[in-house]
């Protein structure tokens, strides 16, 4: 499985490699280039070895010092793209939790594929469960308290997503046992799953504990049509847009789908989890 960071890493590597070739073509050393740019002598070395991501002004100065100013803008755009593909949560959520629920990609997508290894899928969350997870995120990331607005926005987004679109969800059985709310609210979330299984536009599969694994454990991800994957890591939201990498995720989803159970078998696993909320 391709690393979710690889698209952004490859973009940064492409910029560093191109800057290195431009420097070598100009017959300059890293120390000499740094001097021409007015930098600390080690800065060029850090950029070449991707210890430092160059800013736009750095790229322009580098290209100008090498006599290739016309190369700067394309490299700057590549760096900007990499930053869009790998967005730290502190940056992504700086406008608040409610703003993050209003991403336009949901409105532009007709086929959703969701794999969840822990937190239950946002588009199928009850109000209480959504409130629980959003409160947890707010506390963990020390964000302003706009949880109630974020809950409303998430529920509105979910309603719109489930209207006429094709949604395929895969949930690890273990995720059924990870409450993000008090047990009565978690039980209502599981009961909600029982109520939605069987909808014509929703495929809901559960991968049992002891199912033979076709793919090693992955982090939760969302697939938006066949054009973008969003992977949720602890520190960042990673967007995968390279078609070859998107296809790897879609292939993994297809293989895991075959390891899942559906319909009455999925309901039986949910009811088993429900029993534990009463203990």
UniProtKB/TrEMBL annotation:
<dbReference type="Pfam" id="PF13560">
    <property type="entry name" value="HTH_31"/>
</dbReference>
<dbReference type="InterPro" id="IPR043917">
    <property type="entry name" value="DUF5753"/>
</dbReference>
<dbReference type="Pfam" id="PF19054">
    <property type="entry name" value="DUF5753"/>
</dbReference>
<feature type="domain" description="DUF5753">
    <location>
        <begin position="109"/>
        <end position="271"/>
    </location>
</feature>
<protein>
    <recommendedName>
        <fullName>DUF5753 domain-containing protein</fullName>
    </recommendedName>
</protein>
């Amino acid at each position: 499985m391709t690393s979710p960071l690889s698209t952004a890493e490859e973009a940064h590597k492409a910029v560093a490699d191109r800057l290195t070739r431009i420097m070598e073509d100009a017959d300059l050393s890293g120390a000499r280039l740094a001097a021409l740019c007015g930098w600390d002598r080690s800065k060029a070395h850090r950029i070449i070895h991707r210890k430092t991501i160059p800013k736009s002004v750095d790229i322009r100065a580098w290209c100008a010092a090498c006599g290739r100013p016309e190369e700067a803008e394309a490299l700057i755009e590549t760096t900007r793209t990499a930053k869009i593909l790998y967005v730290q949560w502190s940056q992504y959520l700086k406008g608040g939790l409610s703003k993050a629920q209003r991403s336009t990609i949901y409105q532009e997508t007709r086929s959703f594929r969701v794999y969840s290894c822990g937190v239950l899928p946002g588009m199928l969350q009850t109000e209480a469960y959504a409130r629980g997870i959003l409160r947890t995120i707010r506390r963990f990331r020390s964000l302003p308290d706009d949880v109630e607005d974020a809950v409303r926005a998430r529920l509105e987004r979910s309603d719109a997503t489930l209207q006429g679109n094709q949604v395929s969800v895969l949930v690890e059985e273990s995720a059924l046992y990870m409450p993000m709310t008090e047990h009565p609210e978690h039980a209502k979330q599981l009961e909600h799953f029982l109520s939605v299984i069987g909808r014509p536009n929703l495929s809901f599969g559960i991968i049992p504990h002891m199912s033979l694994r076709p793919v090693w454990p992955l982090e939760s991800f969302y697939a938006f049509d066949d054009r973008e994957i969003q992977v949720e890591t602890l520190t960042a939201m990673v967007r995968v847009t390279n078609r070859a990498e998107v296809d790897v995720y879609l292939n993994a989803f297809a293989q895991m789908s075959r390891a899942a159970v559906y319909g009455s078998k999925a309901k039986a696993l949910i009811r088993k989890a429900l029993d534990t909320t009463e203990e």
